[in-house]
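[audit] Reproducing an earlier prediction to check determinism. Same input, same settings, fresh worker. If the tokens differ from the archived copy the diff job will pick it up downstream; this log only records the rerun itself.
[audit] input (84 residues):
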Amino acid sequence: MFTKTLTTLLLAGTMAGAAFASSDVKLSDDTTAQIRQILAEQGYEVGKIKIEDGLYEAYARKDGHKYEVFLDADLAVVRTENDD
């Protein structure tokens, strides 16, 4: 019984955390423009922008390479992955 209750509580907490994280980021025209500007200043050519796992995800090119650039709710780059 204890294990089942603990599992239920853990799952509920995980789902609530995911819902909270995803509600922090909303994709609007203004946000998209800000992301494009921030990344352009860093030398990226930005394509599609979407939300994934509570982060903004921008598909971009730089120096002939493809990247996925992830930004948090404050539009700070938190991770960059090479997508070649």
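[audit] rerun output stored. Observation attached for the diff report: Residues 5-12, 14-22 have pLDDT under 50 and may be disordered.
[audit] end
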